[in-house]
Amino acid sequence: QVLSGCVNQQGALWVRVTHAYADSTVARILELVENWEKQEQGGADIAQQAMQLLNAMPHKRFKAGEAAEMLFVSTKTLENAMRRSVGMPFYAYQRKRKLEMIALQLEVEPELRLAEIAAEFGFCDEFHMSRAFKQQFGLSPLQYRRAKTEQRQEK
Predict the structure, then answer these.
(1) Nearest to 99, CA basis, from 137, 127, 60, 62
(2) Whether pLDDT at 40 is above 60
(3) 145 near 106, Cβ under 8 Å?
């Protein structure tokens, strides 16, 4: 609370207050703004940690709350960080990333059966994996594998 104050000819403001600055409303507001800015910057770190978690355990299907708990943040914080960092919620990124890994697996190890790949990446069966794969890439896993094999043979 301001008790009195004045402005001298040099434009300096002198104020007499009842509380120290650290206890003032202005200090609290500035602290909230600084914490918010840190949280905004930290969102990229949270998203990065979530992506590392998904890459480290591609066979596991995480619920957003489970991943958030592992990263010591709330589900909402994780979701907001993912949306800011990759433009999609956690579950959508997880699915997209698994399918990208499957595409790479089909190229690198074309002899693997689809059922093996589905199990390796946490799909309940090859049908569900194939349907998700086709939605993302526009080709079934078999068509994709065939196309990549033909490309490799042409080179």
Answers:
(1) 137
(2) no
(3) yes
Whether residue 64 is predicted with pLDDT greater than 90 in this model: the reply is yes
3-state helix, strand, coil in the chain (%, to 5): 70, 5, 25
Sign of CA dihedral 132, 61, 104, 117: negative
Give the pair of three-digit tokens for residue 5.
Answer: 């104050």
Residue 128's pLDDT band, with cuts at 50, 70 and 90, is very high
- Percent of the chain residues past pLDDT 70, beyond the cut: 72
E strands present in the chain: 2-7, 13-17
End-to-end CA distance of the chain: 78
